[in-house]
Specification:
It contains two helices and two strands. By secondary structure, it is α+β, with helices and mostly antiparallel strands.
Length: 64
């Protein structure tokens, strides 16, 4: 799970999104896979930034 948020997003207030993410992340910690759940904050508005998200996807979706 990768959540991406812009620091100047006027649709979703990033501190609230991060607080909700922390709840979600706690479930991944219980499953002992916290590295598979990340929050990416970037400088920007309500857009798809993608840089960190694509890195995350490449790391977890590459064939073994």
């Amino acid at each position: 799970m990768f959540i991406e948020e812009g620091s100047r997003d006027t649709v979703v207030y990033h501190p609230m999104a991060k607080a909700e993410f922390d709840i979600l992340h706690s479930f991944y910690e219980r499953l002992k896979i916290p590295e598979r759940c990340e929050f990416g904050l970037f400088e920007g508005e309500h857009v798809v930034y993608g840089d960190h998200a694509f890195e995350f996807l490449a790391r977890w979706l590459k064939p073994r």
